[in-house]
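Late entry, evening session. Most of the bench is empty. Finally got around to the prediction I had been postponing all week. Sequence below, unchanged from the version circulated by S.P.
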Amino acid sequence: MTLKPIKTILFATAALISTFWMPSTASAQMEYMAEAMQPAYFSRDLVVFAEGLNLDETQEVIVEAMFESYTDDFEYGWAATQERLNKVAEEMKEQTPSSSKDTLEPVLNALGDWLIQKRQLDQGLLENIQAILVPEQRALWPSFSQRLYREKHMSRGRLSGESVDLFLIMRDCNLSPVAESTIADSLDEYALALDIAMRNRDSILRGNPKKLFDNILSGNDKRDASLSDDLIKARVEVRDLNDRYTEIVCSQLSPIDSEDFRARSLKRGYTRIYRRTPAQRLFQQAAENPAYATEVTAQIRALELSYNQELSAINFQLLGLTRKHEPEAQLHREQAGQIRKAGGTPSALEDPTRAIYKKREALGKEYIEMLRALLSADEFLELDGSRRWVPRSEQPASPPSSPGAGGNSELSLSGGKVNPSGKSKGKGNKKGPNDGANSGWNNKGKPGS
């Protein structure tokens, strides 16, 4: 059996849906295609089940056999679906369908039947595992089920802050047992609320395959307009839960742990806002350099503190604007697709964060100039990443000497021995000492290249 006809027909189906139906419909259909082609659970997940449910050795053997049976059933079912799709592809080669509906209908019917069968397989595996658990292990199932779903579906987030897992943040913070015990109840509440919100989001995102495919075939996309709004609201709910429980957890921790937890959560959820800026990297290097005089280091740290305070205010402003703008931008993209489909031209949506990012960039440049004025030219250029902030005309005319630079050194880039006159004895090296090859620099080269 060859996969080429299957890939061809699936890509053709996706292209047709993307062309004739709204983005939310096409997105959901692509979700189904991805779901159809791989199992929900893999053999590597056996470790997650064993650890999460405290399985004993006998249970592990039984569950391993269940995984093997599940994998076999998936492979058999998907192979049968592939065969069915291959037949559809061959029939289309022999007789070209007269309409897009005739092209899509047999493909979507095959995928729809398989998705229903696959979901039964997925649910059957979980039910079979539950059946062999003892009462103590069954008590662990609700929290384990939440964790399993969270880890497998967290990546579906599209908004900033939507894909944060506070349990992973807690793990990375290396909290003391006392601190973990203090926030345990709040995290249990968070896990339950997040599980409900994520399942609601995913049910809207994926919907019912039969209804979705029937709507596609009938050309009915009226419900999709409301689905776009519902999906964005569901995404916002997941994001807001992460943000809200970040603050709840932080309120229960010590000041040091609280600051660390919040910083990690914000950096994970709003990476563009909270990743380290170039100015922060330069200040950290300079502040940690033991070669500077004490008074210079004190001035560097004062500048760093001042910069971080101003940066914090700007980042807080960006956080508020991002949380408000991203859902609007998502909805605008959906609406723009509808307008283009109707032959119109959508209006542009202004991004209010753009001007603030420029303001933050200007602030960084201002403080980098202050740091540069505080250090000598050589001291500043020793900092990693500093050259981009120095005008080319002010950079040194030649790089510092290093092994392999030529001259009187015993090493050369060509690998030959260099004699005192500066000429290499390497084979084939017939150029003079001033040809520029010995330094890695030339008249057109960039400093540090």
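Two things to note before I forget:
The first helix runs from residue 4 to 20.
The CA atoms of residues 318 and 354 lie 9 Å apart.
Will write this up properly tomorrow.
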